[in-house]
Amino acid sequence: MSHTIEKPTDITIPSSSMWAKLPVLGGICAATGLGATLAMAFGEHQARAMFSYLWAYEVWLAVALGALGWVMIDQIVRAGWSAVVRRISETAAATLPVFIVLFIPIVTVGYHALYPWTHETDAILERKRWFLSTPFFMGRAGFYLLVWAALSIYLYRMSVKQDAAGNDDMAKARISRSIWRFSAVGIILYVLTQSFQAIDWMMSLQPHWYSTIFGVYYFAASTLAFFAFITLVSMGLQKAGVLKKAITIEHYHDLGKYLFGYTIFWAYIAFSQFILIWYANIPEETEFYIARLHGGWEWVSYALPVLHFFVPFLYLLSRQVKRKQLLLGLGATWILLMHLIDLYWLILPNFGAHGEGHHEPHLALSWLDMAALVGIGGVFMATFGWLLARNKVVCVNDPRLPESLAHENY
Amino acid sequence: MSESKIWGLLAQYENPAEIYHASEKVRDAGYEKWDACAPFPVHGLDKAMGAKPSKLPWAVLLIGLTGSSLMLFFESYTSGYAYPFIVGGKPLFSLPAFVPVWYEMSVLSSCLTAFFANWIMSGLPEPYHPAFASKAFERVTDDKFFIMIEAEDAKFDLEKTKALLADTGATLVEELKP
Question: Could B17 and A275 be called an inter-chain contact, meaning their C-beta atoms sit closer than 8 Å?
Answer without folding.
Answer: no
